[in-house]
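Lab manual, section 2.4: Encoding a predicted structure.

Procedure: take the sequence of the chain (313 residues), apply the prediction step described in section 2.3, and record the output as structure tokens. A sample record is shown.
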Amino acid sequence: MKSTDGARGLSREIRPAGSHRRLASAALHPAASGRIARGVPAILLLALLGLWFPGRGAASQEKPVAMVNQEAITAGMLAPSEEGLSSLRRRLGDELAGRWAREARRKALRRQIVRKLLRVYCAEQGIGATEAEVQSYLDYLRWRTQEFRERLTREWEELTASKLRPGLPENERIPVLRRLERLRRKISLLDEKLGARDEEIPGAARRTEEQHALARDEVLRWKGYKALYERYGGDVMCDARGLVPVGAIQALVEERQSTFGVVLLDPDYRDVLDDFSPSLAGTHFPVTSRQAEAYFSRPWWVTVVNEPAAGDD
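Recorded output:
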């Protein structure tokens, strides 16, 4: 087998400078790609380009490791933060930190592929988020914030009444005061969130826009997962954000791989799409088909807000 360097050198000899860029540009335009290699999917041409012309130096972060519907996912998109990695190296050593980083990149790639595929699938099926649906999710966020604020306020009141008694020794008083200060700061932040619509609060417009984008993404995510589950069925897992139709996602990925809708370019990630089921843990566990059907029968955030509190008639 010839070395990569040799092949790269041969490529430079037989192609004028910049020709691979023109080939990549042509691959993105079906009409032009016919002049290069009729019958070869554009996504496959891009995949081959990603292998034949890898980046060098800093540009290696821009090297595509996967393509989803002709949209590249680069190595730089998967890299964990340098600050977090440095902290892990100090605590775990280079070897364990390196293993963690490799697994973090694999998880990040899997998330990116699913996110992009879900976006494409929703567009194909005409699935969108209406303003009423977005507003219902914003109502849920506001309700959740209010619930949390009330819980912290109760803790503040109970702590003040039970702990700050007259004659409390200084060594016991200081931790209580510190806890009260942390509670005060949290409550203050929640008050800002609850008042995000008030134009007088600094940054309110930006926070409102961010919440609106978050609400739209979550509504689309639920509706996309619902459509996938209804079409493909399969296993469903519960994670920290809700139910995930892992079997349906797996079926969609395999379907798109067969038509070059998803192409893995880096051999280090060749098995990253083999299994979408997360490891079983306290926050990751399978659910029954009956539970999945109930979850996808109605937006879960509407159910939560309208659910009577414990003890209510």
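Check your result against the sample. The chain has two domains: 1-53, 131-306.
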